[in-house]
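Re: export button greyed out
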Amino acid sequence: MFQLNDVKYKNIINTKQLTIPADAITAVTGPSGSGKSTLLRLLNYLVTPESGTISYQGKPFSEWEPVELRRQVMMLPQQPVLFGETVAENLQAGRLFSGREEASEEKLTAAAQQCMLDKKLSEPAENLSGGEQQRLSLARLLLAAPDVYLLDEPTSALDEDMEWNVMERFLAEARRSAKGVIFISHATAMADHFADRIVHSNSFTGGEV
Amino acid sequence: MTESTSIIELSFWQILAAYVFIVLLLAIVRWRKIPREKEILISSLRMTFQLLLMGYVLMFLFENPSPWLTSLIVLFMLGFAIWNIFQRVRGPLTREMKRAIAVSMSIGTVLSLLYFNFVVIQFAPWFNPRYFIPIAGMIIGNSMTGITLGVQTLTEHLHSQRSRVEAALMLGATPNQATRKVVNQSFDAAILPTINSMVGAGIVFLPGMMTGQIISGVNPVTAIGYQIAILLGITGAVALTVILFTQLGYKTYFNERMQLKE
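Workaround output, generated via the alternate export path:
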C-alpha cells in the first residue's frame, strides 16, 4: 500500500492524505496536465516531494534504498524507450537493470505474445512502430516482474480495439501473479472497466487546482 | 659538428616570414566571410607570447635546476590546462562537474607522469627540467584535449538522452547502469583522436617530438624510440584521465536519492 501524507510538490501535487493499494488495479484519471504522471513519478521515487511523506508497505521512502524500491515498484513512461538493438535485448533490459538473471527465449516470446507483439526476437527494435514499441515496453515490464507496475498511459499509441485487448491481457497476467497495477488512463470507460479502484486527480491536486 | 647534425638558428626575420601563414589564413576567412579573424589573431598572439615566455622560463630552469621550480611549473601547467577545459566546454559547468574535471586531470596526469618518468625514461635527477617539463607538457596537453571532448560528449548526451536514462532508472537501474551507454560514448569520443594519432604516426605525419629531435641532430632511431614511448604514455594518460572523469562526471547528474537532478 502507498500512503501519501501532507504531500506537496511544485504546485502540482497537494494532498492531505491519499492511500493507493499496492495489490490491486487502480486507475488514475483526470484532465491532461493535472499531475497524473507526476504522481507516478513520486511513487517511483524519481522525484521527492518538497514536504510530506510517502510510504510503501508502511516504510517511508526516506528509509528505502531508492534503487531497491524502484526494483519493486517499476514505472513505464508514456513514450516508449529502446534499450539495445534487437527485440530480445529490449525484452531482457528490465531484468538486467533490476539485477535479475536473463529470461529464457521461451519466456521472452511468451511475454511478447501476452502483450500482442508478434515479432521475431532477432528483429531490430527500431523497425517497430510506436504502438509496437509500447507493447514491447509492456512485455519488458512483465518480464521484469516487479511487485507493482506504474503505467503512464501505456497504450496511448494503439487503436481502441488493440488498446483494450492489450490492457485486458496485461492486467489478467498481473492479476494472475497477484501484482499491483496503477495505471493512468485518458479513457474513463477503460478505467471503469478494468480498475478495482479509480483515483481522480482531484484527490491529489488539492481539489480546486 | 658536421653539417648534417647542426641546427639552423632561426633569425627574427625568418620567424616573421613564418607569420605569412597566418596572413594567408586571415585572408581566407575574410574572403569567405567566416567570423574567425579575432580568434585567429588572439590565438596566434597568445601562442607567440606563451612560447616566448616558456622559452625564457626553460632557459632559467636549465641554468638553475630545482625540484621545487620543476614541480611548480608542472602544477602551473596543470592548473592552466584545467582552467582551459572550463573555458572550452560550451555551456555552463556545475561546481561538481568542475571538481570532477580538476580531480581527474590531476590524478590521471600525475600518475601517468610519475610512471613515465620513473619507470620508462628513468632520467636523473628526477626533476631534470630538460625531460620533466616537455614530457609533462605533452601528457597534460593531450589529456586536456581528451577530457574536453569527454565533457562535451557527456553533457550533450546526458541532455539529449535524459528520458532514456530516466526510463532505465524507472526499471530499477542504478545510475551506473542507466548511464553506461552515455559514459562509454564519452570515453570513446575522448580517446578516438589519440588512437587515430597512433594509426597515422610515421606514415601520415611525423609527430612533433620526433621532428624536433631529428631537426636538432638526434639520431632518428633514438628519436623514434622516444616518440613511441611518449605516444604510448599519452595514450595511457588520456585513457586514465578520461575514465576517471567519466566515472566522477556522470555521478554529478544524480542526487543522493539516485534521482536525476533537474
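The two ends of chain B are 67 Å apart (CA to CA). The button fix ships in the next patch.
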